[in-house]
Amino acid sequence: MRLPVVLLLALASGGTATQALRERDSEIRAALPPSGQSLSESERRRVEAIVARIVDTRQILESALGTRWAALTVKERQRLLEVFEQRFRSSSGFQLDSMREARIEYLAERRQGALVVVPTRVTVRDDTSEVSYSMRETGSGWRIVDIVIDDVSTVENYRASFARIIGREGVDGLIRRLDRGGEARR
């Protein structure tokens, strides 16, 4: 299963982390047009905004960069976060038709230090994936800080990709790649 579909299965304020995921899933589905109808640009932007509210892109970016984050200038951090958020938003708008068909089984959540992990089974057509959301509660509700799809961490995947790019092209190269929408994984 591709990351954008998985990202659309996410959270809201209040209650447990699982309740937040269920509520957000309903919000996203309600924002989608009926099956067979194309998604308008305004509907796409609305769904992207829903995703943007629920995923803590700053935390994901900081975790992916590790110690490199602290070494960045304020300007570099701001620019990198801006292009990363935009890239994240636009990538989550793909494969929305699959979201209409997704069946989600929520399994028992578990506390893991300061985080709550919500494991799910997501089935789209005949493809089932194990998806676990690592979430933290904030003053504005539950936020996703990592997504593990079939034992592959999104943060770890970004960490490896970003390290390779920064090693070859520097932070400016990573910013350029994210800004132009090019694949950050090579």
List the defining traits of the structure above.
single chain, alpha+beta, Nuclear Transport Factor 2, Chain: A, six-stranded antiparallel sheet, 54% helix, globular
Characterization of this structure:
- The protein has 186 residues and is α+β, with helices and mostly antiparallel strands.
- It has one domain: Nuclear Transport Factor 2, Chain: A, CATH 3.10.450.
- Helices cover 54% and strands 22% of the residues.
- The chain has helices at 3-7, 17-31, 41-54, 57-65, 67-71, 74-92, 96-101, 154-180, and strands spanning 103-106, 110-112, 115-124, 127-138, 141-149, 152-153.
- Strands 1, 2, 3, 4, 5 and 6 form a 6-stranded antiparallel sheet that branches.
- Strand 4 and strand 5 form a beta hairpin.
- Helix 2 runs antiparallel to helix 3 (41-54), helix 3 (41-54) crosses helix 6 and helix 6 crosses helix 8 (154-180).
- The radius of gyration is 16 Å and the shape is globular.
- Residues 1-13 and 182-186 have low confidence and may be disordered.
Topology summary:
Blueprint: H1 3-7, H2 17-31, H3 41-54, H4 57-65, H5 67-71, H6 74-92, H7 96-101, E1 103-106, E2 110-112, E3 115-124, E4 127-138, E5 141-149, E6 152-153, H8 154-180
Antiparallel strand pairs: 1-3, 2-3, 3-4, 4-5, 5-6
How much beta, percentage-wise?
15-25%
> CATH homologous superfamily name?
Tgt2/MlaC
Q: What sort of overall outline do the alpha carbons produce when their principal axes are compared?
A: globular
Count of all domains? 1
Let me know the largest β-sheet: 6 strands, antiparallel
Radius of gyration: 16 Å
Question: Helical element count?
Answer: 8
Overall mean confidence score, pLDDT: 85
Instruction: Give the helices and strands as they follow along the chain.
Output: HHHHHHHEEEEEEH
Query: Which ranges are low-confidence, i.e. pLDDT below 50, for 5 or more consecutive residues?
Result: 1-13, 182-186
CATH class annotation? Alpha Beta
Count the beta strands: 6
**Helix content range:** 40-55%
Q: Please identify, by name, the CATH architecture.
A: Roll
